[in-house]
């Protein structure tokens, strides 16, 4: 009987996680086919899901300076040519106003210079992306491993725009980004909390029996 209770809690928990936490980002790992092969890189006004919202272009690298954190491709937003410090944006539609979303992405600095590899994250009602509404910044210096960066963003409108921008020294070398995810932050529903409570009670009483 107690075993059954615990089992049902686990099933309820995993169902909730699967339905509530879908990644809302299109082309989240920058693996869309841009015709790159081997260790090539390229510059793009738009890629699937993303568009250049300021500066030069979106630079995709395919296992060039480093291996991608996920798949083969990643982005560098201190891209190339003049105005190399660029921004890329993705519009998100039909969000829940007031809902907090968890943003996760992987970051890696390219150079060993401070103030050279910064990435700003901004977030605001779509399509009013200028000026960008600052959310938070990540910065680092090489050598470093890919680092998971997490932030929490609240939707102030149903349609929001997520933007990543290169900041700092503009020299075509900057921070790398890969594997972006935006998911509704998990807030357990009352039913799940009740089940969780039952489960904890069950575990507690089982522990007492063993002691
Ligand atoms: Ca990737
Ligand atoms: Ca570059
Ligand atoms: Ca730079």
From TrEMBL:
Domain of life: Bacteria
Keywords recorded for this protein, A-Z: Signal
Transferase keyword on record: no
Domain Ice-binding protein C-terminal: 186-208
Family annotation (SUPFAM superfamilies): Galactose-binding domain-like
Signal peptide range in chain numbering: 1-22
NCBIfam families attached to this UniProt entry: PEP_CTERM (TIGR02595)
Protein name: PEP-CTERM sorting domain-containing protein
Lineage, opening ranks: Bacteria, Pseudomonadati, Pseudomonadota, Gammaproteobacteria, Alteromonadales
């Amino acid at each position: 009987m107690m075993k059954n209770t615990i089992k049902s809690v686990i099933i309820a928990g995993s169902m909730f996680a699967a339905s509530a936490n879908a990644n809302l980002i299109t082309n989240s790992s920058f693996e869309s086919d841009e015709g790159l092969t081997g260790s090539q890189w390229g510059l793009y006004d738009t890629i699937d899901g993303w568009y250049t919202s300021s500066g030069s272009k979106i630079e995709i690298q395919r296992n060039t300076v480093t291996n991608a954190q996920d798949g083969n491709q990643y982005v560098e937003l201190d891209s190339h040519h003049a105005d190399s410090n660029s921004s890329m944006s993705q519009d998100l539609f039909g969000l829940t106003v007031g809902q907090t979303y968890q943003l996760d992405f992987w970051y890696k600095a390219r150079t060993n210079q401070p103030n050279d590899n910064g990435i700003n994250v901004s977030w605001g009602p779509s399509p009013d992306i200028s000026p960008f509404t600052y959310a938070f910044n990540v910065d680092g210096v090489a050598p470093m491993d890919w680092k998971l960066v997490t932030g929490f963003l609240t939707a102030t409108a149903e349609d929001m725009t997520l933007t990543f921008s290169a900041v700092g020294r503009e020299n075509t070398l900057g921070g790398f980004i890969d594997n972006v995810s935006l998911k509704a932050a998990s807030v357990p529903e009352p039913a799940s909390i009740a089940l969780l409570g039952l489960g904890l009670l069950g575990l507690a009483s089982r522990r007492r029996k063993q002691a």
